[in-house]
Amino acid sequence: MGDWRKWAARLFARKVVLLSAVLLAGVLLVALIFPWVSDADPNAISVSERLLEPSATHWGGTDELGRDVLLRIVHGARYSLLIGFFTAAGAVLLGTLLGMLAGFFRRLDAPIMRCVDAMMSFPDILLGIALVSILGASLWNVMLALVIVYTPRVARVVRAATMVLRELLFVDAARALGVGTARILWRHILPNLVSPVLVQITFIFAYAILAEAGLSFLGVGVPPDIPTWGTMIAGSLESADKAFWIILYPGLAIVFTALSLQMLGDGVRDLLDPKLKKAA
Predict the structure, then answer these.
(1) Is residue 274, in this structure, part of any structural domain at all?
(2) Cα→Cα distances 126→133, 145, 207, 220, 222, Å
(3) In this structure, are residues 216 and 230 in contact, taking their beta carbons and an 8 Å threshold?
(4) Domain assignment present for 8
(5) C-alpha 234 chain-centroid distance
């Protein structure tokens, strides 16, 4: 417990990292708790209340169909965070597996990394558009497409770390003792990959939220009936000149959440790699 307290104290020594963590915790808490305390329908249409300015009744105003903007942002947080979480988890699991195989087994390095290089030669958003177009527009297909898009990033990082680890003395000692390859990978290589992988999780989480918003903006993302932050912006473009708040508030939600994840990722990276440590 003492080690965790020291780790947390060092991580949150920078105020910007602490503020980012508090903001993310607040977003997560609201996303998890609000649906349990309110049964309001975020897709409920009220044409008579369309494009109302923010007020005591509708704190975030209403959109072009009379739907409460703040209510949709709160509900949309669940979907946007879900997309970010599953994309980060899937990309890290698949990327770690591919990176370990490529970095540890020399015969597998060239074929795996050539595929990774080919995927990384395409811009993320372009590859995402192509994959969603093939798979079809749905929540799960968007997450699957983003997993495929961001897996190469993790694979390259893990491969580089694995190539260093496989040459260290503790790996040679394990081989000399007759330890099997699978056990070496599981007990000796994988635990030493936690630091770079943990940093990648925070970055990919943020990238996925931004990518989903970009795909939805281009009309190839999550279906419009699912109130993610990206679909809110995409569906309100025609009325944005009449009611700026219908784009401003979901846009701020995306920016602050993604920025907080990036800042937290920077803090974790600086903590785990003393060479990159910045002045507090």
Answers:
(1) no
(2) 11, 11, 14, 11, 16
(3) yes
(4) no
(5) 20
SS3 content of the chain, % helix, strand, coil (to 5): 75, 0, 25
**What is the per-residue pLDDT for 273?**
65
Residue 44 phi/psi, 5-degree rounding, is: -65, 125
Domain that holds residue 195: 32-263
Three-state secondary structure call for residue 219: coil
Domain harbouring 231, CATH code: 1.10.3720.10
- Domains of the chain: total: 1
- Per residue in 96-112, pLDDT tens? 999 999 999 989 999 99
Instruction: Burial-class residue 280 by CB neighbours within 10 Å (0-12, 13-18, 19+).
Output: exposed
Q: d(Cα 70, Cα 72) in Å, to the nearest integer? A: 5
Burial 11-40 (b: 16+ CB within 10 A, else e): bbebeebbebbebbeebeeebeeeeeeeee
In the chain, DSSP assigns E strands to none
